[in-house]
Amino acid sequence: MPGRVVVVGPCASGKSTLVGGLRGLGYDAVAVGQEHSEIASLWRRSRPAALLVLDVDLSTIRDRRGPGWSEPMYDAQRRRLAAATDAATVVLPAGRLSRMGLLAAATAALREAGVRPVRPAGQDDGASPR
Fold first, then answer.
1. What is the reported pTM?
2. Distance (Å, whole) CA 20 – CA 15
3. Cys-Cys with 13: which of 9, 18, 50, 70 at CB 3.0–4.6 Å?
């Protein structure tokens, strides 16, 4: 079934990069800033056919954002993502995979869940990520 793919994860986990890759393959993919919201089910508002959660450790975030990224901020974001993580179609180890490896793991999980692209690969609808 075609349908929307929602991607959530902490800051600097690779949400935008993964969404771009999925959109390039024809998926209706969006990143939801669940890590910034105290509304635990914010991601549900996008009515996903699949929910992908990106998991990264604090050291990976610090590598990407700088050493000043605080542990309390990281802990708060993980807390805000807990309900999404529990409901996830798949939790992907984004900190241990390359960009291409993450995209391959995501598309494999989507195939297994029966979620197909909504348009042919390379035919993005031109809309900015929602």
1. 0.90
2. 9
3. 9
94, exposed or middle or buried, with CB in 10 Å at 0-12, 13-18, 19+?
buried
CB 76 within 8 A of CB 34: no
**How big is the chain, counted in residues?**
130
Q: Which amino acid is at 71?
A: E
**pLDDT one digit per residue (tens) for the chain, 130 residues:** 779 999 999 999 999 999 999 999 999 999 999 898 988 898 899 999 999 999 999 999 999 999 999 999 999 999 999 999 999 999 999 999 999 999 999 999 999 999 999 988 876 655 544 4
Residues 6+ apart with CB under 8 A from 71: 58
Question: Rounded to the nearest 5°, which phi and psi values hold at 85?
Answer: -60, -40
Check: CB of residue 23 under 8 Å from CB of residue 103.
no
Domain boundaries, the chain: 4-113
Cα 84 to the chain's mean position, in Å? 11
Determine the topology of domain 4-113 in CATH: Rossmann fold (3.40.50)
